[in-house]
Amino acid sequence: AHRGALAGGAPTVGVLGCGVDVVYPRQHARLFAEAAANGVLVSEYALGAGPEAFRFPARNRIISGLVLGVVVVEATRQSGSLITARLALEQGREVFAVPGRVDSPKSCGTHRLLQQGARLVSCADDILEELNLAASMHTLPGPEDSGCQAAGISAGEQRLLSCLDVYPVNIDELVRLSACAPAEVHDLLLRLELKGLVRQLPGQQYERI
What are the structural domains of the chain? Predict the structure, then answer.
């Protein structure tokens, strides 16, 4: 979500489960710096406070309190996202959920939310209309616009990203979907992995992070 906001040229807000001077996890150091430079980092904990496990569920009430609505894209039965959704309801916020595959454990939580009355989301417009924001929103820049360029994503990388999902896609399918040569797909995937945007899974499968 933070990368998407930054790539679209919008500010982002990061609510931390540690002090604002602590980068956690360490591999997100670049994203941490970009969020601090183009948005704001928020924490109720003192400088130097470490990322203790109990602090993350506690900070979720701040996340839900700062927003008009909470969108849960994926959630297992025990996901922390469900804690955020519950807190959002207690704070009078809207709760949205994206349906997923019925055979995926990552969809159990979102389907449960939908059964309990969460708003079903199939696209961004569903959220904007529900919150009465559609008329006030400007068109976001496309992949060829400055947002992606500022985030260091080339047109080829963006094209391949658009072929990836949170569900694994094998390399042959990526070649077919992107209409790129296999060697080019391998090169683009390596670049996207180094940027922390995709990860490789067993069996030459890839998923978007």
Answer: 2-136 (3.40.50.450), 153-208 (1.10.10.10)
pTM, 2 dp: 0.66
Cβ burial 87-97 (10 Å sphere, 16+ → b, else e): bbbeeebbbbb
Q: Which amino acid is located at 42 in the chain?
A: V
Do 100 and 107 form a contact (C-beta atoms < 8 A)? Answer: yes
The residues, any chain, with a CB within 8 Å of residue 29's CB and separated by 6 or more, are 23
Asked if 113 and 84 count as a contact pair (C-beta separation under 8 A), the reply is no
Calculated CA dihedral for residues 86, 89, 94, 99, nearest 10 degrees: 30
Per-residue pLDDT of the chain in tens (209 residues, 90 and over written 9): 888 888 878 899 999 999 999 999 999 999 999 999 999 999 999 999 999 999 999 999 999 999 999 999 999 999 989 999 999 999 999 999 999 888 889 899 999 999 999 999 988 888 989 998 876 655 444 444 444 444 568 888 888 988 887 778 899 999 998 888 999 999 999 888 888 888 888 888 898 88
